[in-house]
Design goal:
The chain is 46% helix and 18% strand. By secondary structure, the chain is of the alpha/beta class. It has a single domain, classed as P-loop containing nucleotide triphosphate hydrolases (Rossmann fold, 3-Layer(aba) Sandwich), CATH 3.40.50. 2'-deoxyadenosine-5'-diphosphate binds next to helix 1 and helix 7.
Length: 175
């Protein structure tokens, strides 16, 4: 952990629907980490440069997002939830978790979410091609990247538990 941070920062990334928000919420409940949902932040603080009709999503402004988060990331104690991971400063994170979901399971979750067909198949394809895993391994030191399955409730529980244990270990000196 960077010396100036009292508490660590964790990034939870993965294709939409892999369970980032659910996982982050549970970890945040069990630790002193604050859940930072970057998608919500983009919407609430207008950190975008418009709407992409083709992909039905905001065109995010990466610089604005990093500026908005810089101070709180320097203080530490954040669990950041976002489906991209290559534009954050590498120094921000002590642990990077990439959630992975089997394509049939992911398809059903995104269908339930009402994604348009194009967006749905793009995301499932992204998952099959391991796009986010590759992005994470290219952006952060391999030792801090953990690729975890997120198909079942048991996976969810285990992912939360191991992250809470990790957190306790790295913060045992913090009062
Ligand atoms: P994300 O934030 O990655 O888009 P989410 O946390 O909103 O994903 O989860 C999408 C849906 O899938 C939601 O209904 C909760 C469910 N879910 C997430 N992780 C799961 C898991 N490991 N097992 C079963 N269901 C899960």
């Amino acid at each position: 952990m960077e010396a100036k941070r009292q508490l660590p920062n964790v990034l939870v990334t993965g294709t939409p629907g892999t369970g980032k928000s659910t996982t982050c919420e549970q970890i945040a409940e069990a630790t002193r980490l604050r859940h930072v949902n970057v998608g919500d932040l983009v919407r609430s603080q207008d950190l975008h440069c418009g709407w992409d009709e083709e992909y039905s999503c905001h065109i995010i402004d990466e610089d604005k997002i990093c500026d908005a988060l810089e101070d709180q990331m320097n203080r530490g104690g954040n669990i950041v939830d976002y489906h991209g991971c290559d534009f954050f400063p590498e120094r921000w994170f002590d642990l990077v978790i990439v959630l992975q979901t089997d394509n049939t399971v992911l398809y059903e979750r995104l269908e339930k979410r009402g994604y348009p067909q194009k967006k749905l198949s793009e995301n499932v394809e992204c998952e099959i091609m391991h796009v986010i895993v590759q992005e994470a391994l290219e952006s952060y030191r391999e030792e801090i990247v953990q690729v975890l399955p997120s198909n079942t409730v048991e996976d969810l529980e285990s992912n939360v538990e191991r992250t809470v244990q990790w957190y306790k270990q790295v913060t045992c000196h913090v009062r």
